[in-house]
Amino acid sequence: MPTERESKLRCSFCGRTGREVWPIVEGPSEASICHLCVSLTDVIARKLKAEAANATCAFCSRSIAEAVGVSELMENTYLCLDCEGRLVKAIRGGWKP
Ligand SMILES: [Zn+2]
Ligand SMILES: [Zn+2]
Question: In degrees rounded to 5, what are phi and psi of residue 75?
Fold first, then answer.
């Protein structure tokens, strides 16, 4: 079950709260992401497109140009592979059905 704090988190991508989608991981800079959105990431190098858009990682705010790889979460919303790896781990580790 989500903790009181987790149930108040809101996924920055789909807008669902921790009450609806759990596990949900809280990131830096007030971003949070739920497991549904992490599993939706399209881990293909969209880097060129992202670079062209001057994109930053939605989670750590690092410029995509510095990132090794990038996932596109949804149109114009990107996640660097560092964050994606951490999120997947955190979500798997926190998953206690
Ligand atoms: Zn979500
Ligand atoms: Zn990142």
Answer: -50, 120
Residues with CB under 5 A from ligand 1 (ion): 11, 13-14, 34, 37
Range of the domain at 78: 4-94
- Count of structural domains within the chain: 1
Task: Dump the DSSP string for 52-91.
Answer: HTT-BBTTT--BGGGSS-EEEEETTEEEEHHHHHHHHHHH
Gap between the Cα atoms of 60 and 66, Å rounded = 12
pLDDT per residue as tens digits for the range 41-59: 655 545 667 676 788 888 8
Q: In angstroms, what is the span from residue 24 Cα to ligand 1's centroid? A: 8
